[in-house]
Fold each of these.
Amino acid sequence: MPFEQLLIEGLAMGACYGLFGLAVVIIYKTSEVMNFAAGEMAMFSTFIVFHLLTFYHCPFWVALLAAIVFAALLGILVQYFFLRPAKNPTLLSLIVITLGVEMLLMGFASWKWGAEQQEFSLPISYMVTYEPIKGFIISQWALAVFIIAAVVMVFLYFFFNRTSLGTAMRATQQNKHAAKIMGINTDRVFAFSWAFSSVIGLIAAVLLTAKTILDPQFMMEPFLKAFAAAVLGGLMSIPGVLIGGAIMGLLENFFGYAWPVWKPITAFIVIVLVLCVRPSGLFAKHWVKKV
Amino acid sequence: MDMKRAYYEDIELFKSGTILFWTIVLMVALFTLPLIATNYYLYLFNLIMVHVILAVGLNILVGSTGQISLGHAGFFAIGAYATVLLMTKLSIPFFPALILAAFIAAFFGFILGLPALRLEGPYLTIATLAFGLAIMHIIGHMEVFGGRSGLRAPDLNIGIPQLGWNLTLTTDFSKYYLVLIIAILMVLGAVNILKTKVGRAFVAIRDSDIAAEVIGINLTIYKTLSFAVSAFYAGIAGGLFAFVLGFFDPITFNMFLSIYFLVMIVVGGLGSIMGSITGAAFITYLMYALFKNIKDVPYVGDFLTAISQRWLSITGMDNLSAIALGFVMIGIMIFEPMGIFGVWIRIKKYWKTWPF
């Protein structure tokens, strides 16, 4: 494979990881919860799309819209029923709760749709390619990923900086109690951030189905990579996660081309090495623990 | 309620006659159990005790030192593979191989402990997670480890074949006693570690690592030591697990196993030995016994089968265990963050101070 091809594919995969990493970062930014269930929430919503397509023969866009609504509701419900009742949770208990949600959703999805792989076809194809500049072949899928990632980024930028809900989210992240005193309903802010994260996760997962198969475990690896990308970016910064995702995607593609056997773990090893040098990611202030 | 008046009271093994009595009862029960239990339950008990060893070790790291690890399946795998390979390839007798394997795991724990010195919270979690995944992939891709097809454990010969002393344990019945004795020794070791200077240093690091450093605890030594001790326990557990299971492949040691391990100590109670034991027993029973045979349970099984046929899929019914585990994890964190041990403490306090 030529260099340009690896570059574009790596960047597209990286944009996917970055997009999915955004789902992790949005929640971490507002409520400092590491959402291990993000992958399975996205998987579950993707299965809703699949279900509507296969059993009710909806048009793709209707199914996607319905799934987006479902994803938003799922995020809110998870936050409302599982995160909100925990009183004074520690980091570990939040991790255990989100891991519990992950087990729950994965178990239920496998119960409902079985563990076997499902047929799922996107309207954007991986096979249709364009060649805007000579030598740079870009597939329709990669193009869609770039466009969607850019749109989501711009949207989030304006959302966090220009709207009152976005400002409230940033305020909640900086100081929950002060935000409460200023009249922000922090619980509702958390619920919104979960809904946002869930929807972005769904979009990323639907894009990823073009590259992988659809079964109840298909989001495991992409999720871990996206999570690692978010950690690489510092877990707090939105541009950081996309850059982290791009680094992950490129590393994976180039190393994967050189040593295919070690493709699944090169990225992780690099993450650990980077963390040894910069303990809180590339684009964050040092993770300060309150004493 | 638990006031201590002398240093000896803090370090003594049995706090009271009652505890001594019940410990003896438990020991007698455990040693006579194989006489009445069927083979299947012996296998389950072996599995439980392997998990007890691991949970006790993990609790030293997570509960007592406050470092989160999602990579303990990696140490577990190192223990299992190292024991079997040392025995088959280098023909080292069982006990030296087991201990050597545990030290190899401890060495890897020490290595993982080094980045852990600088990492905290989410970053440490992802680093340990990456370690577990890396171990699984390395094992799966190297021929010496049997690759994807896995490895078969040799006969469990606990004698020294070189000197002509052979004692081969073949049944679950005989393996039970081996695993039980090792488990008791390991639990005793953990109880005693936590009562020494080292254990107190761990607890101090958990409560506040800055304060611990101020009073003269060397964080570098004790944090890596905590990882190494915990990995040592995981290595021993892994070595025994290899023989309890008889056959294993890299997929056995996937990320979910690490999650189960974490859930065991969280459900049992962080920082408590008894908690780790009950948690390991409870989760192992839930995952490996109860939901494996849920279809045969009267009424409940029929009901679930009917639901599966009507709305869901019958092939996916095995995943009920994952759903149940998810509910247990969430429920315990919401209603009783201290785990089963916390419930026990509450009951004890209620009865000790009863009329009030």
Amino acid sequence: MSAVVLGYVPNALGDAAAKAAVDEAHRRGASLVVVNTTRADRLVDPAYADDDDMSRLQETLQGTGVDFTVHHGTSRDTAAEDVLDAAERNSAELIVIGLRHRTPVGKLIMGSTAQSILLGARCNVLAVKA
Amino acid sequence: MDNFLALLEGFSVAMQPMYLLYALGGVLVGTAVGVLPGIGPAMTVALLMPITYSLDPTAAIIVFAGIYYGGMYGGSTTSILLNTPGESASIVTALEGNKMAKAGRGAAALATAAIGSFIAGTVATVLLSFVAPFVAEFAVQIGPTEYVALMIVAFLTVGALLGASVLRGLASLALGLFIALIGVDALTAQQRYTFGNPFLADGIDVVLVAVALFAVGEALYVASRLRHGPVKVIPVAGRWTSWMRKEDWKRSWKPWLRGTFIGFPVGTIPAGGADVATFLSYASERKLAKGERKKQFGKGAIEGVAGPESANNAAAAGVLVPLLTLGIPTTATAAMMLVAFQRYNIQPGPLLFEVEGALVWALIASLYVGNLMLLVLNLPLVGIWVKILQIPRPYLYSGILVFAAMGAFSVNFTPVDVFVLLVVGVLGFFMRRYGYPIAPMVVGLILGPIFEDQLRRSLAISQGDPVALVSTPIAATIYVILIVIFVLSFWLKKRQQAMESEVVEEAPLAVADRKEG
């Protein structure tokens, strides 16, 4: 069975991406792989979903009837690498991510997860705008 | 009255736009480092010291004072919103503050902490303005013998009380005294411990050792130990103007004042600085609370935030009393400020108020100004302080190391200094790793040469008779006071430890690694 990979973040943008990913998975008859990891190299990581966020997401996903797996936790790699890895492993046909505006300086200093995924992916990437 | 005029004079200096900007910069940086766990005011002052050479002494001291006060404010934010104290003096704040935040009262906790800090800081600065000249008046009367007595007080209190273990503190102090000996002897021009190396003939610069220990050693230590996963920030609701309800004011004002009057005296004695004061304040608030409010302790009592937060700021001002009047640092940050004084050829000690009166009063005036700035800045800017916590740690550490190396190079513009920095930095890492406090080492290094000079001078006067060291009435009094301080401090420490273990049993707490503030 083919797969759709969702790069999830715990905010409105992430939820919009989740919704789009569910639609795509339905349309393609694919399973959904949810990825949310952190390198734990900072005290506060707003992109990392805590257990409450994750269980909330899982509840929503269960309601949609899509077959899904979750990859969540601390990782040595960056979030972008983890999403790309998951896509590779599951030979995904689509990656779904949220895309937000970034300042050039912010991107220079902190890097852009979305950009790395867009450029590094071997399959199509659906960038969702909230 | 003279002092009041001198203070006004100080204000006229501190209110100059340029110095106001320096104070603003200082409090901003101070709050930022106070917010970040693992980076404290002592490290920041050490890092900034080489950069501030180009400033005039007043500007540099104002910046450092801003960092010092700002650090005390910043720590409370992380304590309350993340349950991860940014610095050791905010550990107690996390106990009640985080519970309040979890109950949706985070805004009130932040507000009471900031307003309490402001009130305590201001009242304590007033106290400082009145007490310090009085102590200084006494201090000018002392001669070499009394000076020796004072130095011994400083060494023993800092060495024995600034760490968990007396023996390790004294070992660290001895190491500092030894490094102070390296170089050419001031009286006889003999080379000591230089191994014929011309680089060592000048001695090892205090700034170098301070930067190495506080910046390189600490950064390495924190990088190797502090591995907190992501923590959820508890969101703060509402506009900051509506944060304190009428009831909160009513419950807060007494703890604010009590915290102030607990913190200031504790700060003036070398009992380990602000964290002891916060524990004392928390304990007394809990004891004084009655009925319904008593039950709230451990579940988010506003008194438990208001008291300790005022106490730590009052203690921060208290620490300045022995520093400015006697040249005795009682905390790591105070030690760094002493280094800064020396850098500008300002001899810290009894004569400071006489010789550098204008500077000291400008410093005190800038404390009033800084306090006001911190109050205004802190409440509306909480969001920004929390954002700082998103900076990946590797960025911070590499930044600190680069800054430290640059600073070391700029001391004399020789690569040898950078090498010394790295060697001492690695030493500092292992000292921290094995529980040796580093502040006594820096204090030993700063006061060592003064101590030696005064000791030899008083022995020369008495023609080698050591009894002369204790026979003058003032010296004898100082030694008696030393004993009293020791007894008092050990008692305070005991109380604190008892409190700490009791509190930790009640509520397991994610205490960030303790560091010397």
